[in-house]
Amino acid sequence: MVRVWPDAVEVGYGALRRLRDIVYSVGESPLFISGPGKSREICESLGIRPLVVDESTSKAAEGVAAAALSCDSIVAIGGGKVIDVGKMSAERAGLPMVSVPTVLSGDGIASPIAVIDGTSHKVSVPRALVCDLEIISGAPKRHNTAGAGDLLSNISSSWDWRRAHELGRDKDFNGLAAAMSETGALALVSEEPDLRCSDTLRALCQGLLLSGAAMALAGSSKPSSGSEHKISHAMDRLFRGPGLHGEQTALAAVFTTYLQSNSHRESMISFMRKLGLPTKPADLGLSFANFARCVAEAPSTRPDRFTILEEVAPAGERLLGLIEEAFTHGSLAGQSL
Known about the structure:
This protein is α/β, with parallel strands linked by helices.
């Protein structure tokens, strides 16, 4: 049976106090890896001498896998790049992996996907996860906020996947996986829109865990990556990523949920505004015309995945009109198409 959830999950303030117990329940001879900055300092404060990783590349993953030849587990302490390298190297070495995020910038903390050299690779879900909210609260606010944006965009992606199934354009739909993805996002929206609030941070971590589990259950990223991720990929391709990943997907979701007439759109946007996420293209330095280029380019980034963009297929002046409506007159109301 495919694992969709870590066997051990510790989330809370002071969770690092249980790190050694959890790590040694997974393996007796772990290899610790970290980033070169804060995560390395955390390791050293715990008496751990980690192997330092500063890039999410195949070369880095190969180096970690080679260093783990005499070990029986890999423990990744750090941000998204470190955790991705940890997951990929563990997959190559055939070892269990423990994820210890120091920032909540995306759902990679426990997902079955590792981004290496800019490409997504299927990997195993971490065997365990330790998320100390005290450490997370000290991470750069913008990065945690981007993680919230990545989670909120599941409101769009889960809708896309369900709609593709209804139209007979997706035969692999899993209702439970779609519900898990959406539920994590809606649970976050129900909290105080302030990442200094402990309940909000906990909801963010748990929502990102649910997002990863939904992907593992589905066997693909479909529950958490739809039309809004296609637009974000197009932003990367055309404008070299004007924002952080979660900022881009959240902004794109403002538009895609408009096309979807998504019933959760108003509460999503209200939460985004209070949290400080971008809600219009200008917030990421894009004009309406440039955003339109991204929307037009988006279908080609994942041509095998049917979304609202393929159903509506807006182009030309109609596309510009829809963008203007979505980000001005339709900012808090949907539209039936």
